[in-house]
Amino acid sequence: MSAPRTPRPVALVTGSNRGIGLEIARQLGRLEMTVVVAARDAARGEAAAAALRGEGLDAVATRLDVTDGASIEAAARFVRERFGRLDVLVNNAGAAFDWTAETTQPSAVDADTLRRTFETNVFGPLALAQALLPLLRESPRGRIVNVSSKIGSIDEIGRPDSPLASMVAPAYQASKAALNAFTALLAKELRGTRVKVNSACPGWVDTDGGVPPWLRAALGGNGGAVPVEQGADTPVWLATLPDDGPSGGFFQGRKPVAW
Ligand code: NAP
Q1: Which residue from 19, 81, 195, 253 has the least number of CB within 10 angstroms?
Q2: Alpha helix (H) ranges present in the chain?
Q3: Residue 17 burial by CB count (10 A; 0-12/13-18/19+): exposed, middle or buried?
Q4: What pLDDT band is residue 254 in, cutting at 50, 70 and 90?
Q5: Residue 4 scores a pLDDT above 80
């Protein structure tokens, strides 16, 4: 049975126990939303939600592994039964298994790495959007934000002079391109509804994912990666777009970027 609708808007952010996701949850909480900290490790999720509550924000944790269909169903049920509403879904959880010290070129990427990467970065976000869409459709301002990356931009990959040309992680790049395709496809399906769907590139952000230890060691620092507060800004902006805001776009620094 569904709970009566709570008066505050509710946002679910995947992978929000750390990194950019945690900061997105924090910024949405500061905008008076109830935040569902969705994390694959229950204890880490609860610790992050407790930290946000300690900052005076309204946050609860739920366990969610985006590669596990049963876990996706359970998280959707949790939101329905606890809040009776969902206004924002941020598909932030991501994995870059081939973002490693030893570069793997596309001609050598193995199928298992591709599969694992797509499970987390593409199939998970789509399955979660499908599971939560009934609630998002009931919201006065349903918003889906897919946290993507400009290194998955096909336009960028095709330009020899791209400043991102030296970044090679084919499984990760292809997965973000596929995620972007689903952003556009879902936005097209939802045209004429109150639900908006957009992709965000957070920029190069100083997190474990953006500057892993091997890279930090090679760079002797963070190489100029931006702080999480800045990385979270565009996803949060897209999560709180007004009714006349865009849908079906790809944005960085609140500006459109090429697919
Ligand atoms: P991060 O520090 O590596 O954190 C990744 C988060 O995703 C963690 O909370 C992790 O959980 C979670 N996660 C991974 N697999 C999951 C799964 N199967 N189910 C549920 N949660 C899962 O990454 P980040 O740098 O904050 O990046 C966040 C998003 O921004 C990702 O989608 C990434 O691709 C994108 N992005 C990042 C950068 C950057 O420079 N940092 C640039 C462009 C795009 P655990 O704690 O349990 O591992």
Answers
A1: 81
A2: 19-30, 42-54, 69-83, 111-118, 124-138, 154-157, 170-189, 213-219, 228-239
A3: buried
A4: very high
A5: no
Q: For the chain, how long is the longest CA-to-CA vector?
A: 56
Instruction: Confirm whether 46 is a catalytic residue.
Output: no
| Ligand 1 probe mutation, 207, 219, 226, most atoms within 8 A of CB | 207
Look at ligand 1, atom 12, and give the residue with the nearest C-alpha.
15
How far is the C-alpha of 137 from the C-alpha of 35, rounded, in Å? 18
Q: What is the pLDDT of residues 170-193, one digit of tens each?
A: 999 999 999 999 999 999 999 999
Residue with tokens 């050598």: 108
* Contact criterion met (CB below 8 Å) for 120 and 95: yes
Q: What is the DSSP string of 178-245?
A: HHHHHHHHHHHHTTTSS-EEEEEE--SBSSTTTS-HHHHHHHTS-TTPBPHHHHHHHHHHHHT--TTS
